[in-house]
């Protein structure tokens, strides 16, 4: 697939909006078609349904057994923050969440737990997002996160502004967790992706907004128990009025997915993709560079093996 064909493929995936051609697409149009020597560091997929794109992407990374081991207690952490139906792109796509849970169990997970510290009423968010139903159907557990008693304090010795945080006990007690954000606009952080999704595992979110939001997002990502995998849902993208959105006019059907163990790299790739629907310079998403400075991951996509796939 050459660059021209790939741009065309990207453009036709947007039913409500034409994704424009720009240099921001460079992560998906590198001359690297197959990784050099071994598995890719990052996989980018376009053109399929959420579950199909994940199946293809995780296969390229060697399968879920590379990340989840038999007998482990696993957490899958989507964005379920808003009382919104899937078509409004406020939350992670339920089809993607379901597929990840199924693959965790297939890899031998003892149990899988799903939760989010929601902004709207948690029961309405869980139900109307479609995520509660797919979690239960897949045999996983869904946990609330609306009370401070669910959280335990951890230290962040490498944080700059944030040195401690109260983190949900599901994360503290699990053996491995998978970070599954949706790519969308955010009024405060400009973009919310994998790094920003960590605000859904903490209790004290007010501290973030009072002590440099971008720096605190980077700080929480220095926590010792990092996600073994970051899966960015870019099937539908909320391009404006995020993070809650107002109507379907805020939403672009982009049919994308990005996956990597490197949280800064996957967010950088997703941010470049977002630039196809709305101009968002990477330097305005300050937690990316701050995370790189804290050695959480890299923004230098060109130094990674990137596998790009059109379905």
UniProtKB/TrEMBL annotation:
One Pfam family hit: DUF362
Entry-linked InterPro entries: DUF362
Highest taxon of the lineage: Bacteria
- Domain named DUF362 is located at 74-272
Q: What is this protein called?
A: DUF362 domain-containing protein
Please report the organism this UniProt entry assigns to the protein. Answer: Bacteroides faecalis
């Amino acid at each position: 697939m050459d660059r021209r064909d790939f741009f065309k493929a990207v453009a036709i995936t947007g039913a409500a909006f034409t994704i424009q051609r720009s240099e921001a697409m460079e992560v998906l149009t590198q001359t690297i078609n197959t990784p050099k020597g071994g598995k890719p560091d990052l996989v980018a997929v376009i053109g399929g349904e959420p579950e199909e794109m994940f199946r293809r992407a995780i296969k390229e990374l060697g399968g879920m057994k590379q990340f989840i081991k038999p007998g482990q207690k696993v957490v899958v952490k989507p964005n379920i923050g808003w009382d919104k139906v899937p078509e409004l792109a406020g939350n992670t796509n339920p089809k993607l969440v379901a597929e990840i849970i199924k693959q965790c169990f297939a890899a031998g997970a003892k149990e899988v737990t799903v939760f989010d510290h929601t902004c709207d009423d948690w029961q309405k968010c869980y139900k109307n997002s479609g995520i509660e139903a797919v979690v239960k159907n897949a045999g996983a557990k869904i946990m609330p996160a609306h009370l401070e008693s669910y959280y335990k304090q951890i230290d962040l010795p490498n944080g700059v502004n944030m040195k401690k945080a109260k983190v949900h006990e599901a994360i503290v007690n699990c053996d491995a967790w998978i970070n599954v954000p949706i790519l969308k606009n955010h009024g405060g952080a400009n973009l919310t992706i994998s790094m920003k999704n960590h605000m859904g595992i903490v209790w004290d979110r007010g501290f973030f907004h009072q002590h440099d939001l971008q720096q605190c997002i980077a700080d929480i990502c220095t926590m010792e128990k990092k996600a073994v995998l970051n899966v960015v849902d870019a099937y539908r993208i909320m391009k404006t009025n995020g993070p809650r959105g107002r109507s379907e006019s805020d939403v672009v059907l982009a049919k994308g997915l990005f996956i990597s163990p490197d949280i800064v790299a996957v967010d950088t790739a997703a941010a470049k993709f977002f630039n196809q629907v709305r101009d968002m310079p990477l330097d305005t998403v300050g937690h990316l560079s701050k995370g790189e400075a804290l050695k959480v991951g890299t923004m230098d996509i060109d130094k990674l093996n990137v596998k790009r796939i059109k379905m």
